[in-house]
Amino acid sequence: MQHTDSKDKDSQELLRRIVPIIMENGLKATTMDSVATRLGMSKRTLYEIFHSKSEMIKAVLDANERQAQEFISEVFSRYDNVLEALVEVFKYNRDLMGRMSVSFFHDMDRLYKDRRADYEHSREGRYEKMMEIFRRGVRQGVFRPDVDYSVQIRMMSIQMEGFKRMEEFFPSDITLQRVYDTITLAFLRSIASPKGMGMLDKLTGALQGELKVTD
Fold first, then answer.
1. Could you tell me which residues come within 8 angstroms of residue 17 by beta carbon, excluding any fewer than 6 positions away?
2. pLDDT-derived band of residue 43, with 50, 70 and 90 as boundaries?
3. CB 83 within 8 A of CB 192
4. Could you read off the pLDDT of 103-149 as tens digits, one per residue?
5. Is the pTM of the predicted complex or chain greater than 0.85?
6. Ordered DSSP codes for the chain
7. 169 within 8 A of 110, measured Cβ to Cβ
8. What span, in angstroms and rounded, lies between the C-alpha atoms of 100 and 18?
9. How far is the CA of 74 from the CAs of 61, 131, 143, in angstroms?
10. How far apart are CA 82 and CA 124, in angstroms?
11. Closest Cα partner for 90 from 196, 188, 156?
């Protein structure tokens, strides 16, 4: 049993180390050679673990999604106040965006359409979970009761889709992280009650230097 647990931990650690490589390079540009080099192992060893690049990508994406969902569940179990929990999720995602290449989003649509289909299939379920979070926020007095959250959630989702077309609309010095910050904070401020706005300013205060817009 201990041997199995140790092997599983080693596998999870390997996947964790591959995640930033794929995010930085994009799915298409990532090769088994480049991953093996970054990890300091032979390509043969990598192929013994993953029989193909597609198998490796699937394992990494699955592990990354699982880790994200575990983090979100842990955060919402730790914080009673939903605004505090959402800000922690915001920080988690903005860190990912800081390491991610725009090509990652392009490649997901072009090369891994099955993953996109899975995402679309589960979208309404995620929307309903978000609706419950916002209902809780209204009851806690941190979110406004006069907002159509069903529409707001979908509007934000459409804005996030814009990451795939960043090169068309933004100069090269505007990063994914800056766009993510702008979209997410504008969304939270648009639904925050006066009480929630005061909390939001305090919760994001430590990030103000990073979030400050530069010319």
1. 39
2. very high
3. yes
4. 887 777 777 666 666 666 667 788 899 999 999 999 999 999 999 99
5. no
6. -HHHHHHHHHHHHHHHHHHHHHHHH-TTT--HHHHHHHHTS-HHHHHHH-SSHHHHHHHHHHHHHHHHHHHHHHHHHH-SSHHHHHHHHHHHHHHHHHH--HHHHHHHHHH-HHHHHHHHHHHHHHHHHHHHHHHHHHHHTSB-TT--HHHHHHHHHHHHHGGGGHHHHS-TTS-HHHHHHHHHHHHHHHHB-HHHHHHHHHHTGGGHHHH----
7. no
8. 13
9. 20, 19, 22
10. 20
11. 188
Residue 43 identity (one-letter amino acid): K
Structure tokens at 155: 């509007």
> Mapping DSSP to helix (H, G, I), strand (E, B) and coil, where does residue 147 land?
coil
Distance between CA 35 and CA 39 in Å, rounded?
6
Cβ-contact 177, 99 below 8 angstroms: no
